[in-house]
């Protein structure tokens, strides 16, 4: 903003360093914010944003139809497609792998009925603490939009923890259910992305950049190459 001599180059260097550290820490919200500033390492802060690219994904009889760039192809109706659709319906929202597995066939994550075990609870609490620090920082810098997003995510996680605690103490061996969900979701989603990439390399590239899998999964659209999903 100061736009003094050498400021643009210095800003680009700092953003690139911040992007690398955020990625190493697995800090999704911060990575998204840096990318919106052009600091993901692949383009300078002044990189132009291209026009939105529309893609339609619809369920048909026994499969899914994708229309993009003037051509259409189909995907088998698998669990992986269901997980992918849920992530696409909730861009920039982190969803625990157990929620995706519990939600099943492309239902919204809020419908998930999975029992959250000790490992998953620990994951939620760790993310809750991270969001608390982010909310404090956003409030300090008077970043109302960022603060609102952090607070909304805190509220959602608080609800999920309350729901888990209210399940009569039922729990599986620590880590088993969460680890299975993480591995199964990751493998299933990656297989679907590979299938899409084989049919449509450009669309596959967007998903490879934007889909994050692991204990927490999310679709984080690239703000410089936006894809509008019609689901």
List the main descriptive attributes of the protein structure presented here.
alpha+beta; 231 residues; 8 helices; 3-stranded antiparallel beta sheet; 4-stranded mixed beta sheet
List the helices and strands and how they pair.
Blueprint: H1 7-25, H2 28-36, E1 53-59, E2 63-68, E3 71-76, H3 79-89, E4 95-96, H4 97-103, H5 118-140, H6 144-165, H7 176-199, H8 201-210, E5 211-212, E6 216-219, E7 227-230
Parallel strand pairs: 1-7
Antiparallel strand pairs: 1-2, 2-3, 4-6, 5-6
Explain this structure.
29% of the residues are buried. 54% of the residues lie in helices and 13% in strands. It contains 8 helices and 7 strands. The strands form 2 sheets. Strands 3-2-1-7 form a 4-stranded mixed sheet, with helices on one face. With 231 residues, the chain is α+β, with helices and mostly antiparallel strands. The longest helix is centred in the C-terminal third of the chain and has 24 residues.
Unreliably modeled segments:
40-50, 104-115, 166-174
The gyration radius over C-alpha positions equals 19 Å
Q: Output mean pLDDT.
A: 77
Largest sheet: number of strands, sense, barrel closure? 4 strands, mixed
What is the string of helix and strand elements?
HHEEEHEHHHHHEEE
Principal-axes geometry comes out as: globular
Structural class, from helix and strand content?
alpha+beta
Q: How much of the residues is beta strand, in percent?
A: 5-15%
If helices are DSSP runs of H or I spanning 4 or more residues, what is the number of helices?
A: 8
Report the strand count: 7
Terminal CA distance reads 38 Å
Helix content: 40-55%
Side-by-side strand order of the widest sheet: 3-2-1-7
């Amino acid at each position: 903003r100061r736009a003094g001599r050498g400021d643009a180059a210095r800003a680009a260097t700092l953003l690139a360093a911040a992007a690398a550290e955020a990625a190493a820490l697995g800090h999704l919200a911060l990575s998204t914010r840096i990318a919106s500033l052009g600091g993901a390492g692949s383009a300078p802060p002044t990189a132009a944003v291209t026009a939105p690219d529309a893609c339609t994904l619809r369920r048909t009889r026994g499969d899914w139809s994708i229309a993009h760039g003037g051509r259409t192809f189909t995907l088998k109706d698998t669990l992986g497609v269901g997980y992918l659709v849920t992530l696409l319906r909730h861009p920039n929202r982190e969803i625990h792998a157990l929620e995706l597995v519990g939600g099943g066939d492309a239902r919204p994550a809020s419908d998930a009925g999975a029992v959250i075990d000790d490992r998953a609870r620990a994951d939620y609490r760790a993310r809750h603490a991270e969001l608390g620090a982010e909310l404090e920082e956003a409030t300090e810098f008077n970043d109302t939009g960022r603060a609102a997003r952090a607070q909304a995510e805190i509220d959602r996680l608080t609800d999920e923890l309350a729901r888990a605690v209210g399940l009569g103490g039922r729990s599986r061996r620590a880590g088993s259910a969460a680890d299975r969900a993480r591995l199964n979701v990751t493998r299933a989603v990656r297989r679907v992305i590979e299938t899409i990439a084989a049919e449509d390399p450009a669309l596959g590239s967007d998903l490879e950049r934007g889909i994050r899998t692991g204990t927490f999964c999310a679709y984080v659209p690239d703000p410089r190459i936006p894809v509008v999903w019609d689901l």
